Amino acid sequence: MNSIKDTYRTILKASEENLYKDKNSKFYGYAFPVLTESDVKIHIETLKNTHHAARHWCYAYQLGTETFSYRANDDGEPSNSAGMPIYGQIQSFNVTNILVVVVRYFGGVKLGVGGLINAYKTTAQITLEHSNISEKTININYLISFDYKNMNKVMRIIKEKNLNINNQVLEMDCKITISVRKKDAQSIFETFNHLFEIDIKKI
Asked: Impact N-terminal domain spans which residues (predicted)?
């Protein structure tokens, strides 16, 4: 039984816009797949241009598949009344490499901290419920280097093990990049490493 965790949950495309209303305030929720903080900034700037008349653009994101980094931003709302309730939903849905933004138009009636927490949490929840969440595998990439004469030996293993080839250069000096699920990575490495005149390294 292999107990290595090598899957994670994320979204592959941006959600639709989701609207939640409370006492004349409107909360628009969005979810985006992101891999870097630069991706986050681009989506925030785009929404600020789209909703230039809004009062707050609150958000939370989580990045990573094994070690995680996250940020929650209240954007002018009372401390921990917006960003953390949004981040709480990211944790509840167990998703990563994701940004959830809630844009608020103030309706003239104050909601109080409790009301804000509920509104941001609910909007984030609705947004994630309407997002297409997928399970993906954590993969390890290896570079296999060998002489052309050893091609059949290498290709036979790739076929037997049903490995994904990312890239290949098949000349006198051959190089093949393969992608392997994390839980299978060590055994695949050892299989190639034991072969004479075959070099394998993690990239």
From this structure: 23-126
